[in-house]
Design a protein that fits this description.
Shape: globular
Oligomer: single chain
Order of helices and strands: HHHHHHHHHHH
Largest sheet: none
Helix content: over 70%
Strand content: under 5%
Number of strands: 0
Structural class: mainly alpha
Number of helices: 11
Amino acid sequence: MSVLVDLIVMLGMLVVVPAGLLLAGAPELDRIRRLWPLYAVPGAVALWLPRGGPATVLAGCYAFGTVLLALHAPPRLFRTVRASAAHRTAEIALFTALVTPSVAATALVAERSGHALFGFGLGILALTVPHFHFAGFAAALIAGLVCRVADGPAGRFAASSVPLGTLLVLIGYFVGDWTELAGAAVLTAGMWTVALLTWRTIRGSGRDRATRMLFAVSSAVLVATMVLALSWALGEATGLPHPTLTWMAATHGLGNALGFALCSVLAWRRLQGRPEQAPPEHAPPDRPRTDRPPADPALTTPVRTDPPLTDPLTVLEGRTS
């Protein structure tokens, strides 16, 4: 199981986090994103070394990078006080995404040093690392992106329940299995909402089959993997039969890493990077058409305070609002 878990963690460190930072559309994150390999590569190497001093130092390099990333979270949250409800909720999700890698890195440093942090065994600490890369960073980031586009009660529920569920799961580590079960239930509800909105609202916006397929896979995988997460938490709390940790790593963990996180960031990147054409009915008859779509009036009213998104997402938001 350890080899599989380490490979999943490497995917989170080296691919999902930097790709997710690019999707966030936050210029202030550009520097930390460009420097990310300087922290992530030592962290990835630390996974394959024996526990001890060298592995701990390399894991500490990664932890330093995650702390720098987390320091970007509070200023972004403070700037959303006067924003719309949907934007505030999306920013809470992004706040969670920026902070959770530091939780994973803390567990990694403790595990690589052989230290049972807060009384947790090394096996639990090792599994905490992928959990807060994917159920923390990736899930919260994608929920925030969905909320930006699907501006409505369902989108706001998804973007708020994923951070809340993640927090409850973390608290459950210290309080008990029933709190962790509550967190798993809230997180499952949020991720199923993300899957539903992605399938119904966002998937069809992909102009090529590959993008639509990536969105479809990420939605379908979420349904299955979150059932596994809920069944495991229920079994831990009640004593009912449930999958083993080895089975969970091979199914829930691998499915979330490849089927949800990787497919989602690839699909959103393709969606953001696609060229947009102005619909024929929007082009004035006496002026040639341009590649840039006309401004959405909803984005120019003085009431709206959200910062502008990248052009493809702005167009998609106008179509779905």
